[in-house]
C-alpha cells in the first residue's frame, strides 16, 4: 500500500511539473495551512522571463512581472484550522515591439483569487482540506488588422 501511495504521489508531481511553463504564476500553495497556531504570510514574487520571436528577433517579447500574496491561518481547535488566502495565481504578458514587421501587438492576462480553506486533521498524520474559491480573470489584446502596417 505504501509503494502504491508513493508511486501515485510521484506521478502527480511529475504531471504538475510538466505544466509549469504555462500561465500559473503562484501555484496557490497550501503550505501555510500546516503551520502551528496562528500564522500570517505576505509574499512577493518577481519574474523576468526572456523570450525572443522570429518576428522581432532583437527584442524580448515577455516583460517582467511581479505578484503579491497574503495568507492567514488560525487553529480553531486541536484538529480544525481555518485559512484565508489572497493571491494573483495566473498571468501572462506578451508584447511585440512597435518596430516589429507585424506592428505593435500585445496580449495580457491577470487574475485575483480569494480562497477560504478548512483543514481537519485525521489520525495518522493525514488531513482533509476543503473550502471555497473565487477567481477573477481578465485580459486584453491588440492585434493589428491583417495587411495594415503600423
Which features characterize this protein?
150 residues; elongated; mainly beta; 6-stranded antiparallel beta sheet
Tell me what you see in this structure.
- The protein is mainly beta.
- It has one domain (25-142).
- Helix content is 11%, strand content 45%.
- It has one helix and six strands, in the order H-E-E-E-E-E-E.
- The chain has one helix at 2-18, and strands at 39-47, 65-75, 80-87, 91-96, 105-121, 127-142.
- Strands 1, 2, 3, 4, 5 and 6 form a six-stranded antiparallel beta sheet that branches.
- It is elongated.
- The N and C termini lie far apart (63 Å).
- The model is unreliable at 4-20 (pLDDT under 50).
Overall geometry: elongated
Alpha-beta content class: mainly beta
Q: Uncertain runs with pLDDT below 50, 5 residues or more? A: 4-20
What number is the mean pLDDT? 77
Total DSSP helices: 1
Quick overview of this protein structure:
The chain has one domain. Helix content is 11%, strand content 45%. A hairpin with a 4-residue loop joins β2 and β3.
Annotate the secondary structure layout:
Elements: H1 2-18, E1 39-47, E2 65-75, E3 80-87, E4 91-96, E5 105-121, E6 127-142
Antiparallel strand pairs: 1-2, 2-3, 3-5, 4-5, 5-6
Amino acid at each position: 500500500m505504501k509503494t502504491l501511495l508513493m508511486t501515485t504521489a510521484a506521478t502527480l508531481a511529475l504531471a504538475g511539473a510538466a505544466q509549469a511553463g504555462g500561465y500559473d504564476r503562484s501555484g496557490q500553495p497550501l503550505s501555510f495551512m500546516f503551520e502551528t497556531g496562528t500564522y500570517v504570510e505576505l509574499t512577493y514574487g518577481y519574474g523576468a522571463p526572456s523570450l525572443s520571436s522570429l518576428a522581432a528577433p532583437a527584442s524580448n517579447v515577455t516583460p517582467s512581472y511581479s505578484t503579491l500574496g497574503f495568507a492567514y491561518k488560525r487553529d480553531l481547535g486541536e484538529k480544525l484550522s481555518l485559512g484565508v488566502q489572497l493571491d494573483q495565481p495566473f498571468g501572462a504578458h506578451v508584447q511585440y515591439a512597435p518596430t516589429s514587421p507585424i506592428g505593435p501587438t500585445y496580449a495580457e492576462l491577470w487574475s485575483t483569487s480569494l480562497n477560504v480553506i478548512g483543514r481537519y486533521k485525521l489520525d495518522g498524520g493525514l488531513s482533509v482540506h476543503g473550502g471555497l474559491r473565487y477567481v477573477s480573470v481578465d485580459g486584453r489584446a491588440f492585434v493589428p488588422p491583417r495587411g495594415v502596417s503600423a
